[in-house]
Amino acid sequence: MRIIGIGILAFFLYYLQQQLYRRRWNKSLYVTLQFQKTSLFEGEESRLYEVIENRKKLPLPMLKVKFQTSRNLEFTDIQGSRVTDYFYRNDVFDVGGGEKITRTLQFTGKKRGYYKINGIDLVGADLFLSCELLESREANQYIYVYPKPFKSREFMLSLRQLNGEVLAKRHLLEDPFEYRGIREYQPYDDIRTVNWKATARMEDLMVNERNYTALKSIRIFLNIEDTGILKKEEAVEASIRIAAGAAEYFLKQGMAVECCCNGRDVLDGTYMQVSSGAGYAQMEQINRSLARIDADKETYSFGGCFREKLWKEGAGSMTLFVAPNAYEEFVGLLTEYNAQGKDFVWFFPVSEKDSPVLPQELKKNIRVIPVGK
C-alpha cells in the first residue's frame, strides 16, 4: 500500500512539475544574438555573442538555441552545427535559476554580402527531459561584409596615372571663391579681378589671383551584366572590389565620388545609385551599397539605367567604368560616348587564364586588370 502511495505521489509530482514547466519555462527568459559590429571586410574576423539570461528561480535543465544564417559567415566552432545552403546552429545549455550565460562564436566574413539572422528557435524541457517545449522569437540581427578594396600593382598604377591627369586638369579650372594672393595688373586681366583696396594701398593696379580647383567628382559606373552562357562569377566579384578600391583611392585624395551599378539590391531590388559626396561617410555608404548587390539576380539593363545620366556629366568630372564583359550593347554605348568627346577609362577585369578580345575603337580607354588567386 505504501509503495502504491509513493508511486501515486511520484506521478503527481511528475505531473505537477511538467505542468509548471509548460506554463513557466519561457517566462523571464531572455535570449539574444548580437554581432560584435555591424560591418567588416571580406576575410576579416568578428564575433557573434549568444546571451541567455534566466531571471526566474525555475532552472532549465536543457535549453536548445537554434538559428540559421548565411554559409558565407564561416564559424570557427562548428560543433552542433550543420552547413548546407545555410549555416544551421544548435547550441544546448543547462541554465540555472537566476543565471546568465554568454557564449562567444567567432567567425570570418568569407564573401561580400548583407547577412541576417531573422529568428531564434528555443526548445526547452522539464526536469525529467520528458517533453519538448517550443517557442520562436525574432532576432533581427544583420551584418555587412564589405568588398575588400582591390589593390593589385597594375590597378594602383592606373589609379596613380589617373590621379596625375586629374591634377594636370585642375589647372584648367579656376575657383571663383578661392584666392591664393594678389599680383600686379597685366593687360590680359579682366577688370573685374581688380582688388581696389590693395590698389589704393600699393598705389598701383593689383588683381586677385584665383586658386585652381580640383575636379568636381569622380563618377564610377559598375556594370555587372553578364550575357554569356558561362557566368564570370570571379570577374564580377573582382569588378565590385575594383569599384570599391577606386572609390577609396579618390576619396582619400579629397575628391567627391559618385558610384552607380545595375545590380539589384538584396533589400528592395532597386539598382544602385550613390550620389556624389566626399569623406568617410561617403565611403561607408558606397561599401554598404556594394555589399547589398545580389550578383545572382538578373541585372538591370545598363543603358536603360544610366544612358541619360552619362550624358549629364558635370564640368570637370571624370568617368570610370568597371565591367568584366564586352558585350555588343555595352561596347556600342561606350563607343557612342567616346564619339561625343567624353573622357573616360574602362577597367576590364579578366581572369589570368583568359585572353579577352578588346574592341579596337575603345582600346586606348581600356585598362585590363588581371584578377584571380
Number of helices: 7
**SSE order, as H and E?**
HEEEEEEEEEEHEHEEHEEHEHEHEE
The CATH homologous superfamily of the largest domain corresponds to: von Willebrand factor, type A domain
Question: Which CATH-level-2 architecture of the largest domain?
Answer: 3-Layer(aba) Sandwich
Main sheet properties: 7 strands, mixed
Mean pLDDT: 87
Rg is 31 Å
What structural class is derived from the secondary structure elements? alpha/beta
CATH top level of the largest domain is Alpha Beta
Globular, elongated, flat, extended or rod-shaped: what is the shape? elongated
Q: Considering DSSP H and I runs of 4 or more, what fraction of the residues is helical?
A: 25-40%
- Indicate the CATH topology of the largest domain: Rossmann fold
State the end-to-end distance: 80 Å
The total strand number stands at 19
The number of domains is: 3
Give the uncertain stretches in residue-range form.
Answer: 171-175
Portion in beta strands: 35-45%
Task: Describe the overall structure.
The strands form four sheets. Strands 13, 14, 15, 16, 17, 18 and 19 form a seven-stranded mixed sheet that branches. The protein is 27% helix and 39% strand. Mean pLDDT is 87; it is low at 171-175. It is an alpha/beta fold and 373 residues long. It has helices at residues 2-24, 153-169, 196-202, 233-252, 280-291, 302-310, 328-339; strands at 29-35, 39-41, 45-54, 60-70, 73-75, 81-83, 86-95, 100-109, 113-125, 132-146, 174-184, 206-212, 218-222, 257-265, 271-277, 293-294, 318-322, 344-351, 366-371. The radius of gyration is 31 Å and the shape is elongated.
